[in-house]
Fold each of these.
Amino acid sequence: MSRTGLAGKITSVLKNENCISLYSYGVYAFFEAAVIYILAHTYDKEMFGEWTLFYSINILLDKLIFGIGSFSLTKFLSESVDSQRKEALIGSSWAINGVIILLLSVVSFGALIFSRLVPALFSNQGSLVLLFLFFPPLALLRLPFNQSLAILQSRRDFWSILILRLVGMGVFTLFCTVNLFFRLDLLWIVFAYTMSNVVNALLCIIKKWSGIGLIGKRNKETVSQLLAFGKYSMGTFIGFNILRESAVILIAFFMSKEDAALFVIPLRLIDILYVPLLGFVAVALPRISEAFSKGDNEQVRMIFCKYTGSLIIAYIPAAVLLYFLACPLIWFFGGSQYSTDPRALAIFNILLVYSILLPIDSMAGTTLDAINRPKYNFIKVFVMLGINVAGIIAVITLFRSVIAVPFILILNLLAGIIIGIYFLKKHIQLIVFNIFGISIDFYKKLFLKIMGDNI
C-alpha cells in the first residue's frame, strides 16, 4: 500500500463519529482547563476558590435541568423514526425544562432576598450571593444549548456539537486571557461567563438546532413519558455531578477554599481522561438505545464490551504516562504555588488509579439508561453518592487532610461498578470476561484496517 493510501485510511478513521465526538469533548475540556489555568495564575487561592465554588454549584444545577428533560430527549429521539413523534418529544422537553427553570429561579431569587435580609450569614460567601443572582439568566441561556446537544446527539451530528462547544467556551476563554492584564473582580468573570452563554444561545437559535419553535407541539402523553424517564435520569445526573463536585464543595465548607482550590488542580487534570470517555459515551448511548429498541441484546452486549474494554486498555498506558508527567503538569496548570505543595502530587497520583476504573462504571450507567432501566442507574449513583459524602466528611473530620479524599472516590467507584455489572448481568446477561476479548478484537481489526497491505 502507498503512503497516500495509508494516510487516506488513517484520515478515514479520524473522521468517524467516535473521533469527532472525541474532538468536541476535547475542545470543551481544553477550554475549561485553559480557564482554570488562567484564573489560577490571575488570582490568589481565595479568589480562585470563590470562582471554583460558583462554577461547581452552577454546573451542578445545570445538569439537574439537563437530566430532567434533555437527557431523556436524546434517548427517545434515538429510538423514534416518526417525524411527528420527534416534534412532540422536542416540544414537550422544552416545556418541562421551562417549568423547572421557573421553579428554580423562584428559589434562587428567594435565597438572594434572604441573603440581603441576613447579611451576616453570607458575609464570607460572595460566590453564593452571585450564584443566587446569576443562576436564573444562566439557566435560561443554557437551555437552548442543552436542548441542541440532546437533539444533535440523537442525530449523531457531532460536527455541529463540536462547533457549539467551540464557540461558547472559546469566547469565555478569550475574555479570561485578556483579563490577565486587568485582573477584574469575580463579578466581571461571572458576567463574562454569562455573555459567553448568550453567544451560544443565539448560535443554537439561528442554526435552528434547539427546536425552540416546536414547543407548541408538546402534549400531555409525551410530557408524562419524558418525566417518567427523566425523574430517574435527573436524579442520576444530580448524583453523578455531585459525585464529581462534592469533594470540592465539602472541602471548601469543612476545611477552606484554599484547600478546595488545591484539590481542584489535580482533579481537573484527571479530567483529561474524561474527554475520550465522554466522547465515546455520547456515541454509544444512541447506538445502544437503537439496538435495544429492536430487541437486539447481543448487539447491546457487543457495544458495551467494545467501548468499555477499549477505553480501559487505552487508559492504562495513559495513566502511566501522566504519572511521570505529574510534576510538570501541576506546575503548568496551577503554577508554583501548587507544584511545590506535595499534597497536590499525592492527590493526582491516587486519582490516576481512579481514572482507570472510570470507563466500566460510566458505560454500565449509560447502558442501564439506554435499555430503559434508569431506576437501577439511579440506585447505583446514589449508593455511590452516599459513600462519597459520608466518606469524605469522615476522613476530613478524622485526618484534616485532603490527601485522604481521593481514596473515598476510588471506594465509591468500585461500589458503582459492582452494582452496575450486577444489574447488567440480570437484564442483558452480560458476561464480564467478554469485555477484554471483544475490545482486543476491535483493536486488531482497527490495526488491520489502517495497515492493510503493509502487513
Amino acid sequence: MNTQSLRIERRAREAALAEAAARKFSTADAFALLCGLVLLVAFVVLPWFNLKDGSLTGLNLLLTRSTTQGTAALFLVPVTIVVGSLAALLGLLNPYHRRAASLWIFLASLVTLFYYGYTLFQTSQKPVPVNYVAPGFWIALVAAAGLFIQIVIPRAALDIPFIGLSVKLLIGFTVLFSVVFAGAYVWFYTFATNVAMTRIVEDLRNTLHATASGVDVDSFVGLVKDGQPRADGLSDDPRYWSHLQWLAKIIDVEPRALTYSYVRGEKPREIIFIGSCSWLGDCGHKLDPGAGAKFKEHYIANSNPILNGLVAESIDAKQPYTDKWGSWISGYAPIKNARGESVGAVGVDFEASYVFQVQQAVLDSTLPAFVITYAILFVLVLGFSRIFTRPVIRLTRAAELIGEGNYEQDLSSIRTGISRDEIGILAEVFQIMVDKVRQREENLKQQVQELKIEIDEVKRTKQVGEIVESEFFKDLQMKARKIRERSQQTQSQASGSASPEEGTSNPPAG
C-alpha cells in the first residue's frame, strides 16, 4: 500500500472518530441548555420590577409596554431565548452544525447583554434609579452571561449514563404536558386579562363621561382666558379652585381615577394643563408631593390619544402602562360648549392594578393546579410505563440467557394478554428465531461430530499410509518375509528327512 493510500485511510479514520465524538453530548451543550432554560424561567416566571401594588415579570413588562427605563429594548431578551433555543436544537440534531450553533448562541447572548447595558446606562442617568431589585432581572443577566461564555467551554464528550425506557417515557410525557399546559395557561391568562381590561375600560369610559359632562363650560373658558398662575404654579382665581373641586369630587365616586383637564397649545403637539385633582382631594396620596400638573403648565405630548381627546373620546386601552406611581390606563374626552364646539378636554388616568391582580390570581391558581396535575401525571405515567416496559425487560433477560446458551426459555407469558400488540408479536418472532437458532446449533453440532469422525478416519488412514510407506516398515516387511521363507525351508527339510527313516524301520511284509 503506497503512502498516499495510507494518508487517505488515516484521514478517514480521524474523520470517523471526530464525527463519533461530535455526536456525543458535550459539556458546552449541557451548559448552554441549562443557561437557556434559566433565562426562559427568569423572563416568564420570576419578578423583574417591583411596584407599589405588586411586581412584574419580564413578560409582563413586555406586554404592558411599561414606561420604565430600558423596557424599549426588552424584546431583545425573548429574541435571545428563541434564537438560542433553535441554535442549540440545530447543534444537537446535526453535529456538523455544532460550531455554527455555538456561534449563534454566542451572538444571541450579545443581544441580551446589549439590552442590559442599555438599561443600566439609562437608569444610571435618572435622578431616582429604577427599582430593579427583583431577582428575575439579575438571574436573567447571569444566564445571558453564561450563554456568552459557553463558546470557550471545552467540548469534551460526557459519559451519558443509562436511561431506562420508563424514564424516557416519563420525560417525554412531562415535556408534552408542559407544552400543553403552557398553551392553556397563556390562553387563560390572555382571556382573563382581556376580561379585566374590558371591565376597566367600561368603568373608565363612564368616569370620562361623568367628568366631562360635569365641567362648568363657561367658567372653564373664562379660567383659560383670564386666569393667571401664581408663583407656586397654582392660581388664586376662584374658578380654578371650583374646577379642582369638581375634579376631586370624581375621586370620591371613583377612587381608582386621577382626573385633570387641559387645552390645546399654540405649538405643534403642545397642550396646556388647566387643573389636576392632585392639588385637592384624596388623589394626592397616589402621587409624590408636587407631582401633579400645575395651572397653565405647557407640555409636548408624545402620544396621539391625548391630542385626539380634544376632538373626540380617546382611550388608550391596548395594554396598561407602568411608571413609578403604578400601572394605568388613560382616557380622554372633549369638553364641549352649548354649540358642540370643543373648548378643552379632560383626562382620566385609571388604576390598572386590577389587571395585574387578575393576572396574579391566574398565576396563583394555575401553579397549584399544575403541581397537582403533574404529580398525578407523574404517578400515572410511571405506572403505565412500568406496565408497558415489563415485557421488554423480561424479553431482555431472556435474550441474555439465550446468549449464554440456555435456549429453554418460555416466552409464552410475554405473548399472553388481552389482545395482541407489538410486544407480543416481537416475542413470537423472537421465539421463532430462538427455535431456529437452537435447531441450527444442534444441526451444526451433529455436522461437527460427523466431520470429526471423518477427520479421524482420514487422519488414521493417513497415519497408516505414512507408517506403511516408511523405510522402517518396509525393512520390517522384508525381515518378516525372510523369517517366513526361512521357516518354510526349515519345515520342508524336516519333512524330507522324516520320510527315509520311516521306510527303513518298517519294511514291507512278504
